[in-house]
Amino acid sequence: MFKIVTIPFNRNIKGFDDDLLNQSFMNKHVQSYRAEFFADGEEKYWTVFAEYDSVLEQKPYKKEDHGLDESQNVLLDKLREWRKIRAEKEGVPVYLLGTNKELADIVKTAPKSSEALGTVKGFGKGKIEKYGKEIIEIISAFYSSDSHSEKAVNRPAEKSKSEGLQLL
Q1: With the CA atoms of 77, 56, 121 and 71 taken in that order, what torsion angle do they form, in degrees rounded to the nearest 10?
Q2: How far is CA 72 from CA 79, 80, 90, 142, 148, in A?
């Protein structure tokens, strides 16, 4: 498949807004590309011609892999979306913010505090300090939104580390 993306110079940011390019190729594996700069009078543009394969056609995502119900899968997708955006901003691989299993475990436990997030394997002090507040806000917003209000009643009970140790 082929795609041509033209990005105009944005005077507000004094540069080219690459979000359009990133969004255009988000779920695609680019085989080859060619970029060209051109001007039309006062207007400046970058045009990218790309040959690509669709990633979605090659490897479908299976939601049942983590044993989550439909509502929990929606929350997992929200956390994955947050992780992708945050990793792009930091210029790091997504798994450094949390693996798929760690995010699924977060969804299963639905922590309400940093302490509760610490009970998820893989989430130590560093990750909690850096990402904990955002993760907890996403979970809280998800369970308090109108579209998930019935699920909010069934939100998993939070356990502290000491309660978890007493159960062992």
Answers
A1: 30
A2: 11, 12, 27, 10, 10
- The pTM for the full model equals 0.52
Amino acid identity, position 159: K
Residue (of 25, 7, 24) closest to 16 by Cα position: 7
- The owner of tokens 């997504």 is 94
Structure tokens at 30: 């680019």
Q: Which residue has the tokens 């977060």?
A: 106
Residue-wise pLDDT for 94-145, tens only, equals: 999 999 999 999 999 999 999 999 999 999 999 999 999 999 999 988 887 5
Q: Burial of 10 by CB count in 10 Å (0-12 exposed, 13-18 middle, 19+ buried)?
A: exposed
* Residue 98 neighbours by CB under 8 Å, 6+ apart: 79, 83, 106, 122, 123, 127, 131
Of 47, 28, 29, give the one whose Cα is nearest residue 38. Answer: 47
Contacts of 39 (CB under 8 A, 6+ apart): 45
